[in-house]
Structures are given as C-alpha cells and as structure tokens.
Amino acid sequence: MSDTNAVRLDAQVRIVGTGLLGASIGLALRSQGIDVALADSSPSSVHLASDLGAGRPAHSDDSPKIIVVCVPPDVTADVIEAELKAFPDAVVTDVASVKLFPLHQLQARGVDITHYVGGHPLAGRERGGAISARGDLFLGRPWVVCRDEETPAWALALVEDLVLDLGAVPIEMTPEAHDEAVGLVSHVPQIVSSLMAKQLEGASDEAVRLAGQGVRDVTRIAASSPGLWIQILGANKDSIVGVLENLQKDLQNVTDALRDISAPGARKVIAEEMSAGNAGVARLPGKHGQNKRYAQIVVLIDDRPGQLAQLLTELGELNINLEDLRLEHAEGAQMGMVEFSVVPEVRETLVSELEKRNWRVA
Question: What residues make up the domain containing 167?
Fold first, then answer.
C-alpha cells in the first residue's frame, strides 16, 4: 500500500486487537505478502478478521519483529506491558489516540519501555469493527510516531517502515505535543459534532427534511461510538478542557450579541467571530498539504446510472484537474448535486464548457 512497490518490512507482524484499525492494518500488510499474526481477547473477532483476509490466528511459537497494539485506551498500557514481557526482542507500538495516558501508566509501573514506540494513525471511519476494515484506510494519512531519548534508532526505523508500508505519512512528535494537537483537531470536533447532532433529536420532521450538506458536514462524525469516546476524552481531558472553555467564551459572545442585535457593537462582535472562523479554516491544509484555496462548482445531475461517470469523463476530456469532489442528493427530487473544487483561474472557462455540453450548473 506504499507509494513504491518495495516492501520495507521483511518479518512477521503481530496485531493485538482486531477491530477497525487492527484489521485494516492486517489487510494492508497481507496484500503485500507480509506474515500477519492476529490476537484478540475475543476468539470470534480473530476468526472474523482472519476470514476477511487480515491475517491468521496467532500461534504460541510466533516470533514477531514488530507488534501493533490496537485496543481501547483504557487497556492499552496493560496490553503493551504484556506484549513487551512476552516478546522482549520485538518492538511494540500502538494506535491509541492519546499518548501521554498509556505512557504515564507504563512509567508508573516501572516498565522498561525501550522497545515501545507510541503511534497514532489519523485515520478511521464512523463505523467500527473488522467488518468495516479497509486495506487503503491509511493511504496518505498522517501517522504520528512518538519517541524519547532512549528509543533505539533501529526501533524507530522499524515503526516508520510499518507506517510507510501502510501508505501513511510518518510524523514525529512528542507525546505532549500530540495530545494537545489532537485535542484541538480531533477530540473537540467530535464533541461539537455530537452536540450539534443532539439538537436534531427533537427536531420536527419538516426541519430534518430541510437538512443540507452544511449540517451533514458538521454532524458526520456524530455516529461514532460513545463508549470509545468516553475513554478517549477522559484520557485527554487536560488538552480538551482548555479548547472547550475558549469555545464556550466565543459561543457566549455570539449569544449575547444576538440577544440584542441592535445594541452598539453587537454586529461587530458577530462579524469578528465569523471572520476569525474564515482565518482559521484558511490554515487547514488542502491537497498535498497546501494552504491554497479553490473555487467550487455545483453541477446538477439526474439520479440514474452513468450520469456521474459521464460527467467525470467529460471533465477529463476538458483536461481539468479536480482538487476535491462530493456528492449530495436533493431532497424529494430524483436529482444529485456534484460539488467539485478547481483552481480559481479555470472556473469561468469550465462553467462555460459544461454549459455548452448541456450540463446544468447551479
């Protein structure tokens, strides 16, 4: 799954935990011919992941060179400790979305963590379990690798080889920097998404029918598992609370301004908060990590087979490179809306060419 055909890992990999991430890692490695041994506290989970092609059940005489721990945060440290003891010559890494919590647990127990290298792939899906696993889940995604002064160079290199073979992009960070960063860009967005989705629970059917892509974008990740997120949020509470407090202040500012929109300065407060949002979103990296902004075009297509394929084919004939694309269905109509992003300088020409070919541009 890496960018080149050369496979970097040349030894057995043991995966402990056969949920979405563990099974996806197994699928990606098995597609490259790597021997993958699967272990889980649930034998049925192992057999399901094995049946799906993520590896084989682990044997007592296995000799893994690298072990990937893919279990919930509240037991990550326990499993890392057990794996380090059972396979003292192997390097143990993990995929937990918090890094300080398990590290502090291991240090408090006096565990020798020389062969432990923390990791966290910034990839996932709203649905969990091996049945949702995909071998291409990590392609192009950041994968944080945490090391300390005692980490041997060969151990770090082995983990980075694993990451590269999965098609991910290794990024070295300290555990402290990692937890602060994911608190802002992952954990708080999950809370915001869930709380916004909560507002829909008591909404009228008429209101829900009006929902467009905006509310769908905001609430997309709200279907995530509450049980898992309780563990994640609790383990990274120090990084999350500060962001939530800042968000709470901003919400209060807007709320107060809206209560009396005619008051002096009220509109200025709202405008400044919205403008700050413009500045923040402009910092998000786009294609290939660039901060370049793109123009959007919406094309209306009939909801029938072949329409999207025809549109994409004609875009190719026009030699237009799409920077991003998303598809939305129109409520109550047999119609779809394709929104794609292009560099601003080609927008006018592209709209003209599409209309000449009888496409309906919104």
Answer: 13-173
> Which pTM value belongs to this model?
0.77
Structural domain contains residue 29: yes
Q: Indicate whether 188 and 162 sit together in one domain.
A: no
Return the bridge partners of 91, or none.
66
Query: Tokens standing for 60?
Result: 């007592």
pLDDT of residue 235: 94
State whether the Cα torsion 42-44-48-51 is positive or negative.
positive
d(CA 349, CA 136): 35
Q: How many domains does the chain have?
A: 3
Residue 329, φ and ψ in degrees, nearest 5: -95, 140
Of 173, 194, 212, the position where a domain reaches its end is 173
Asked if residues 23 and 130 have their Cβ atoms less than 8 Å apart, the reply is yes
Q: Is 138 exposed, middle or buried (0-12, 13-18, 19+ CB in 10 A)?
A: buried
Closest CA to 185 of 209, 221, 146, 151: 221
Answer yes or no: is 1 within a domain: no
pLDDT tens sequence across 50-61: 999 999 999 999
Structure tokens at 199: 């507002």
Read off the pLDDT of residues 112-169 as tens digits, 9 standing for 90 and up: 999 999 999 998 776 778 999 999 999 989 999 998 778 899 999 999 999 999 999 9
Tell me whether residue 107 is exposed, middle or buried, using C-beta atoms within 10 angstroms of its C-beta: 0 to 12, 13 to 18, 19 or more.
exposed
In sequence order, what are the residues at sequence separation of 6 or more whose Cβ sits closer than 8 angstroms to the Cβ of residue 335? 300, 301, 302, 303, 329
Angstrom distance (rounded) from CA 357 to CA 163: 45
